[in-house]
Specification:
Elements: E1 6-9, H1 22-34, E2 40-43, H2 55-69, E3 74-78, H3 84-97, E4 101-105, H4 114-126, E5 132-136, H5 138-141, H6 147-153, E6 159-164, H7 168-177, E7 183-186, H8 192-197, E8 202-205, H9 208-223, H10 227-243, H11 255-263, H12 280-289
Parallel strand pairs: 1-2, 1-8, 2-3, 3-4, 4-5, 5-6, 6-7, 7-8
């Protein structure tokens, strides 16, 4: 399964009542494919506010995205949790929904050992035929999947990729030691190009909601033999990469990018509690990122 080099972790549009806004979800999928050049969409990841979505809502989103994308891009379902049995159940629901793969986050809060994490992912992999992308984000999970454990998991045939929000050192170690079918993706926009330079295949992005076309150009320039041009694009986009998360103080994802999307005319709505919408000062800062103030 080739998920491409630019993957967008898609927000979930909500209406004024805080329910999924299906019409705007369809519009957002079209926009991300056609305008922002996303090759794959992650549905119900953290950026999609998965902690506040019910299983019923998640499965409905998987089914809707598969049907609406209609083969124009791949669909990855976020089905990971800190409960192995629950992750297996949701992964199997996602498989029945017709998705192309699943994203499995490192189990959060209960802080399992490396062996516990290995067995967690192994159990899910054994319960599905879908390609699996691991997701290592210790800043959110309080546990980190080591390079050694990732390389063990890479030997399982349907574990085909990892999204890494860790050091370039670990990205390098995994890229250097992984089998040929296994791909490393950066999960951090600001270090996406540096990660590619040390062996990552692509980027799972949040900023690609609003600067995806430029990011695709950056990635294509690098792999097309124009690293200087890629660096120039990265430098131009860097304030957006940083600003969407440091707004000017750290702002929970996806608060800033949802507001940025409204500036593009997409009515994706606000966020669900315990997240809250961007303040007036934060909105003003986001507008300056796009020269709209």
């Amino acid at each position: 399964m080739d998920f491409g080099r630019l993957i967008t972790a898609m927000v979930t549009p909500f209406n004024e009542q805080g329910e999924i806004h299906w019409e705007e979800t369809a519009r957002l999928i079209d926009y991300l494919i056609d305008d922002q050049k996303s090759e794959t969409l992650v549905i119900s990841g953290t950026t999609g506010e998965s902690p506040t979505l019910s299983d019923k809502e998640k499965v409905e989103l998987f089914e809707f995205a598969v049907k609406h994308a209609a083969g124009r891009c791949k669909i990855i379902a976020g089905t990971g949790s800190n409960n192995t049995a629950h992750s297996i159940h949701l992964t199997q629901d996602a498989e029945r929904a017709g998705v192309d793969g699943v994203l499995l986050v490192v189990p959060y809060y209960n802080k399992p050992s490396q062996e516990g994490m290995f067995r967690h992912f192994e159990a899910i992999a054994n319960a599905t035929k879908l390609p699996i992308m691991l997701y290592n984000v210790p800043g959110r999970t309080a546990a980190s999947l080591s390079a050694a454990t990732t390389l063990r998991l890479a030997q399982i045939p349907n574990i085909v990729a990892t999204k890494e929000c860790v050091s370039l050192e670990q990205v390098t170690q995994i890229a250097a030691g992984a089998p040929g079918h296994f791909r490393v993706y950066s999960g951090d926009d600001a270090s996406g190009l540096p990660a590619i330079a040390v062996g990552a295949y692509g980027i799972v992005s949040v900023a690609s909601h609003v600067v995806g076309a430029e990011m695709k150009q950056m990635i294509d320039s690098y792999f097309g033999g124009a690293p200087v041009q890629a660096a120039q694009i990265h430098q131009k986009l860097f304030p957006v990469f940083k600003g969407l998360f440091e707004c000017p103080q750290p702002l929970p994802n996806p608060v800033a990018v949802k507001y940025a999307l409204t500036l593009r005319g997409l009515n994706v709505g606000s966020v669900r509690l315990p997240l809250i919408a961007a303040t007036e000062d934060e909105q003003g800062f986001i507008r300056t990122l796009f020269n709209l103030q």
